[in-house]
Amino acid sequence: AGKKEIDPNVVEQIEEVLLTSDVGVKTTELLLDEIRSALSRNELADTDKVWDALREHAKRILRVGAGGGLPLKAQPTVVMVVGVNGVGKTTTIGKLATQLKAEGRTVVLAAGDTFRAAAVQQLNVWGKRVGCEVVRGKDGANPGAVIFDAIQKAKDTGADVVLADTAGRLHTKTNLMEELSRVARTMNKALEGAPHETLLVLDATNGQNAMQQAALFKEALPITGIVLTKLDGTAKGGVILGICAEHGLPVRYVGIGERAEDLREFEPDEFVEAMLGRASGSEDAAA
Amino acid sequence: MFDTLTRGFRQARNRLAGLTELTAGNIDVALREVRLSLLEADVEIGVVKAFLARVKEAAVGRTLETRVKHAGEVHQVSASDHFIKICHDELEAMMTHEGDEIAWADGGPTGIMMVGLQGSGKTTSCAKLSRYLEKQGKKPLLVAADMQRPAAVEQLKVLGESLKIPVFNIPGESPVAICAAARGEAKRLGRDVIIYDTAGRLAIDEPLMQELAQIKDATKPENIFLVVDAMIGQDAVKTARGFNERLSIGGVVLTKLDGDARGGAALSIKEVTGAPVLFTGIGETTDKFEPFRADGMASRILGM
Ligand SMILES: Nc1nc2c(ncn2[C@@H]2O[C@H](COP(=O)(O)OP(=O)(O)OP(=O)(O)O)[C@@H](O)[C@H]2O)c(=O)[nH]1
Ligand SMILES: Nc1nc2c(ncn2[C@@H]2O[C@H](COP(=O)(O)OP(=O)(O)OP(=O)(O)O)[C@@H](O)[C@H]2O)c(=O)[nH]1
Ligand SMILES: [K+]
Ligand SMILES: [Mg+2]
Ligand SMILES: [Mg+2]
């Protein structure tokens, strides 16, 4: 083929792909501005280069905080898992426990969702599956007290990690968010420095509401990382771009199914290629 | 709560301020703002385009009555108010459905099958619906047919117990076998509505979609409802299309509307499948369940 040219509709096409991936208007504009200015400086030779530049921008945004797995900084390391209803908190705990167990760590699960019907039983099934202890209170028990006991238990037995489940709650419910802050403070009373990690679980099928979720959970709690679940579906999870750009929170893991082994460390490059198509010249890039 | 959306529409209004006629020229600016607002509300992009085209057609060429006489008094109506009303009415028309929410069986118990993505709110909505129907004098039976998610059966049992509504399950059996046996159980217990709770699944999960088709064949439910999380984004359309192609869904339950999600999916799904939103979930407890109101949703989407 002869010299390639830049498709005059490329900016429009990019916009469409970003919007259908749930990137959202604001972040889409941010990315398009970079593309437009590179185009006006004649920095991009052909259409493929335009898409390459877009992929690079997106990857750069997602590389905040270097992501990666869970740093175990203390003995025990206490991890609090939070998020809105039904995103995959309890399942993620089951998966994380599976990984930690395989690495030879001892894990205690804290059944801090004392509200939802059979949430404790659900975590208990995971505990049995993985082969680790589940500390539970009575139905309707104070979640802070249950997690306090779990941390105590981990200290007594020399366990490596405590994974604390919490009830799903919508970020707009101020009283529930305050309760969550109180639970975090109680954890600190059980062990100085706890929770060492507070993971916000986000559902990749969610659209722009995830922006509000991140903003309000971050306001109430010292969020240290994100787990993006349900990426095995057709949803792209593009809203995470805006969240990373705005809050600088690293994505630590992605959920890619319901089984114990369906948790992966987040790879920005892989994520972006799943969203925008693979490297230069590929057909799906402009699809 | 609906900040961005309201802002968008406010800007659209400002752009039209002082105009007395909507023309192809002046309306485009306003429509661009509306487009952004709808996208922020998670309306699917294709549906946004269709909506804008319809609004444009409805609006262009209309000379706007700026003074309206009503009940003997003269009111000022701005071009922008008029434009907003056109948007509202079009949205409402797109989401409206007529007739009963539930299709009732001629004889024997009425079947309602609940399907949807993982975590969308199926189990909770089954319990809510059973309570809602019982209040109307029905005698529902809940069927726990999620044999996959840990403690899914227990979850429905706890909810059923709290409502004193029976929950049917056969430990160790397949979902298809459990659902097929539920009719006999309903007859035995004298129940007239059967609500099937199924496991969450992706529309692209072929074996699990096959299982739903088998449950449908075995139970021939009068109603198949897709349960959708109001926070869902652009994927609403692929998901709804996937479930609809396999099962031909009759309606949608839109959950978690008690948050600040704008719920653009209500519009997208109706547009793409023809299945209307019938009920909404507005909280975690079993009383937080209401029939859907298209006018309320249109206003919500417009931030009015
Ligand atoms: N496909 C898919 N499903 C997932 C994934 N993670 C979790 N799920 C499913 O999503 C549903 C909800 O998961 P849970 O772990 O119960 O979610 P939760 O956040 O604890 O829910 P609540 O405690 O009710 O707020 C379950 O059916 C899980 O099996 C994932 O990565 N992919
Ligand atoms: N705030 C709020 N939470 C809801 C609503 N409906 C369901 N939930 C919550 O959402 C979470 C998931 O609900 P489930 O009923 O377990 O969802 P599901 O679709 O049965 O999930 P799977 O069976 O795992 O696919 C739970 O925490 C529910 O309490 C609602 O209308 N509002
Ligand atoms: K995906
Ligand atoms: Mg949970
Ligand atoms: Mg369920």
Description:
- The complex is a heterodimer of chains A (287) and B (304).
- With 287 residues, chain A is an alpha/beta fold.
- Chain A has ten helices and eight strands.
- In chain A, strands 3-2-4-1-5-6-7-8 form an eight-stranded mixed β-sheet, sandwiched between helices.
- In chain A, strand 7 and strand 8 form a beta hairpin.
- The C terminus of chain A is likely disordered.
- In chain B, strand 9 and strand 10 form a beta hairpin.
- Chain B has 304 residues and is of the alpha/beta class.
- Chain B is 49% helix and 16% strand.
- Chains A and B meet through helix 1, helix 5 and helix 8 of A and helix 2, helix 6 and helix 9 of B.
- The structure holds guanosine-5'-triphosphate (2 copies), potassium ion and magnesium ion (2 copies).
- One magnesium ion binds next to helix 4 of chain A.
Number of strands of chain B: 10
Task: Report the end-to-end length of chain B measured between terminal Cα atoms.
Answer: 11 Å
String of helices and strands of chain B: HHHEEHEHEHEHEHEHEHEEH
Class of secondary structure makeup of chain B: alpha/beta
Instruction: Report the sheet-strand fraction of chain B.
Output: 15-25%
Main pleated-sheet profile of chain A: 8 strands, mixed
Shape verdict of chain B? elongated
The greatest interface here is: A-B, 44 and 45 residues
Strand content of chain A: 5-15%
Uncertain residue segments of chain B? 1-5
Q: Write down the secondary-structure element order of chain A.
A: HHHEHEHEHEHEHEHEEH
Helix content of chain B: 40-55%
Strand order of the largest sheet of chain B: 5-4-6-3-7-8-9-10
| Number of helices in the DSSP assignment of chain B | 11
Mean pLDDT of chain A: 93
Please report the number of helical segments of chain A.
10
